[in-house]
Amino acid sequence: AFGLEADGKLLRPSEAAELYWQGPGDGRATRDAPVELRMRFNRPKLEWTVRWSILPDGSVAKISSTIENIGSDGIKLRKCRLAEVSAERGEVVLGDLAERAVALLYSGWHNVGLPRRLAALAPGRTAKTLLQTYNPHSQTALQLGFLTFDRVNTEHRAVWNKEKAKLVVDSYCDFEGYELKPGAEVDSETLTLELSDDPIRSLENWASRAAEHYRPRIWPETPAGWVGWAWVDPFHVECYEDVVRRNAAAIEKKLSGLGVKYIWVSIGNLADHLPGNWLDWNQESFPTGPEKLVADLRRQGLTLGLWIAPFWISDHSPAERIERLRPAMLCRDGTLLQSNERWGMGPGHLLPPDKRPRMFLLDPTHPLVERHLRQVFAAYRQWGVRYYMIDFLYGISGSTPGTYRYDDYHDRSVISGPELYRRGLKIVSDAVGEDTYLLSSTGPTIQNVGLVDGARVGVDYGDGRPLTREDYFYPGTFVINNPAFWTSHRPATNAMATSFFLHRQLFLADSGNLLTLDKPCSLADAQISATIFGINGSPMMLGDDIDRMADERLAMVKKCLPRLPEAARSLDLFECPEPDYPKLFHLPVKTAWDRWDLVALFNYDSSPRTADVDLKRLGLDADGEYVVWDFWNERFDEVCRGKLRLTAGPQSVKLVRLSRRRPHPWLVSTDMHVRQGQAEIEDCSWDAATGTLRFRARRPAGERGNVFLLAPPGWEAAEPRGLWLAKDGRRASQALIVRCALDFSGKAVEKSVRFAPWKNQ
């Protein structure tokens, strides 16, 4: 069913004064015959045209509409319902045992939600832009996803009707009282519906369609940098600039050539550490000033990045600044909106809680705000800043989603919600320059398409905090031994599982934040963190003090560098509804010389966990044989066929590499990068005539590493000098495992290992 809320009335086709129909008479659109229904209403006087069609592949329907005011008075629009299926109107058919089906109600912002069973859906639950359901019993995946979402708030309401054992859905875009002027028309957003047997593939399909529509610029490299904070307090214990300079020198010395390019300074550059003091440089924390700091970092091959909350102004800011911007602040019910949170950073934490700063919210449709932001970013650009994390964007997002429901802003021709929000992002995006990496945080995600380079799709993984007594972290600066804590592993893998399909389609999906793994993090925790960043394709900031870091943990950091673009997909996202969590991830790796698969099993529980993975789910030949290499244990595990069995100990990760078993010796892993060959092996080949395996590897000068080869039974090393040779003692294997140790001088290392048939076999 369709429905349009206008001037307080719900308009349906049956109530139209006139109806005009184009297309097949039964209303069933086909790939060759779309349908259009034009409805004219007298109260209020408007014309509403709804169109639906089937996309060429036959599995996706598309619905859009246009609303025209044909009267002489303005019309206030609210929900435009493009797909309404209730217990009385239509039916959602998900097959037998539909109550066991699950639904991912996409939250649309950095705080992700996981799939829930339909029967457990709370009344009033809504999804932003995207709703994906799946019934594993019938293998039915139904998706309702808005293809466009840049102007009007897009939502899906999903309710399980227990009486009739049916799913009730309502997909609409909410204009939230936007006034359509006489003679004007406005398009709704466009909705797509996809039916398939694979919910993961459906999510990827939706992202591909959205990317084709918006055609966003995708940042070519995956950024890596340093922010610190986990083990050092640059606010109260050490001078922030000293910490930055120490670590910049350490990065130049210890991580040279591995792609670490940014130094991210967060908050400490601001006078009194106070949002709004964007151009008031903190001389106490950074005595040499921004220009010299930028110039010195540039000589070390590093670029300065800053944190900024561009639409916040503290109520403790200078009175002149507040008064100048007061006309350009968002309001509700005639009152200036302010943040719910009190600011506790810097001197603010010394004040009584009820006296700490709060933030006014700036109206991005007001010319004063545009001038203010352009002035700030022009100064930053002149300093040489080329990286930003723009934070607390929910301050202007309204219902996009967001927290602050403003009802008064300057330019009322702009629709509240996404259109107003994107107006603000566009100002920032234009001001920073095309050569600047722009990362959004604490707010909407998919509505950022085309205006940011990266979007935080998770919370502050791996983050530390200054030594402030009121903070939960105190008396530490980092929290360990709680995988479910908001800065720990489980929220990070949840974000990766629910956002992988957005990565490099709409933007770089930043599902992590900081790689922090120095002691006293346990070895198992460090391996989990390195695995997450090794397979998520996400930008990566380093949270450790690189200057003082334990050597063995620094070596683990290097296993995640350089950053590689692809993101692992979740295998069990729709098999582990809340309160469970996704644990299995798969990343196919392709190079010019080979292809292989990485599979990770994350276990955050207190007992061991075993998982069986059908090789067909990985796109592999069910009858083929595959070599399994256990990365963190540096162990040839087995040769599997048909099914892969993984076991991870309590609060640990198991990461394996699967490669096709060959009848001759072949490379099966390296210990230099989590991807095990994608970053460091440039070529590998087998010469059957001479029995020679050749490979070429490259890492920065001074680095060392190992390549592992596996020879099936019947082969021996023809020239064993300089090789580490081990025979697998298991009767079923009898394979030969060869370690080749490499030292890098800055040039590619070429290695030839000659084998011969073992005559005594």
Please give the structural blueprint.
Layout lengths: L2 E4 L2 E3 L6 E5 L12 E7 L4 E9 L5 E10 L5 E11 L16 E4 L10 E2 L8 E3 L1 E6 L4 E7 L6 E9 L4 E15 L4 E3 L3 E6 L2 H16 L9 E3 L13 H15 L7 E4 L24 H10 L3 E6 L3 E3 L4 H7 L5 E2 L2 E2 L22 E3 L5 H17 L3 E4 L27 H15 L4 E4 L13 E3 L32 H11 L8 E3 L3 E2 L7 H14 L3 E3 L8 H8 L10 E2 L13 E7 L4 E9 L5 E6 L10 E6 L4 E7 L1 E6 L3 E9 L5 E5 L10 E7 L4 E6 L6 E8 L3 E3 L6 E4 L8 E8 L5 E9 L4
Parallel strand pairs: 17-18, 17-29, 18-19, 19-24, 24-25, 25-26, 26-27, 28-29
Antiparallel strand pairs: 1-2, 1-7, 3-4, 4-5, 5-6, 6-15, 6-16, 7-14, 8-9, 8-11, 10-13, 11-12, 12-16, 13-14, 20-23, 21-22, 30-31, 31-32, 32-37, 33-36, 34-35, 34-37, 38-41, 39-40, 40-45, 41-44, 42-45, 43-44
How would you explain this protein's 3D organization?
Helices cover 15% and strands 33% of the residues. It is an alpha+beta fold and 761 residues long. A hairpin with a 4-residue loop joins strand 34 (625-630) and strand 35 (635-641).
